[in-house]
Amino acid sequence: MAYTKPIPEPDPVNRVFWEGAKAGKLMLPRCTTCNRVHWYPRLLCPFCHSRELEWVEGSGEGRIHTFAVQHRAFGGWAEEVPFVTAYIDLKEGDRMFTVLRGVDPTKPESIRIGAKVRVEFEQASDEVSIPFWRVVEE
Questions:
Q1: Which is nearest to 73 in space by CA: 65, 63, 83, 64?
Q2: Does CATH place domain 15-135 in 2.60.40.420?
Q3: Are 120 and 98 within 8 A, CB to CB?
Q4: pTM for the full model?
């Protein structure tokens, strides 16, 4: 089945992230001045404003910070309502927004803040794979 949701276009700032995703790796920008990982990719460290950045491979592990059940959507996402979106606290620091997998959106009471999650990638095109996060057993 064809991927019907929006597909990001890699650019020079985030190209390493998308190349990593295509290879099944979570690549994260890290500042070499303050040694902090940040999300989303940008030209300056959001913490110390240094331009000294490098890419590191993340663990692909995190925990649910918060979540919401989406009952309305448009485009390809409309076919999947209801679904759960969440902010994930990355093991390396900072936070990433995602569509959460491995949960039942009709039973939000079963979704636990702090639950362990792992990244997975879905191929959206020949060039782009999209990261999603899935709840895993502890």
A1: 83
A2: no
A3: no
A4: 0.91
DSSP string, 49-101: ----EEEEE--SEEEEEEEEEE----GGGGGG-SEEEEEEEETTSSEEEEEEE
**Which residue is it, tokens 């502890």?**
138
Strand partners, 72: none
Quick: pLDDT tens for 57-75: 999 999 999 999 999 999 9
Cα distances (angstroms) measured from residue 105 to each of 15, 43, 73, 78, 114 = 32, 36, 14, 14, 17
Name the nearest CA neighbour of 94 among 49, 30, 37: 37
One-letter amino acid at 30 equals R
Question: Both tokens of residue 81?
Answer: 């309502």
d(Cα 106, Cα 132) in Å, to the nearest integer? 19
Calculate what percentage of the chain has a pLDDT beyond 90.
93
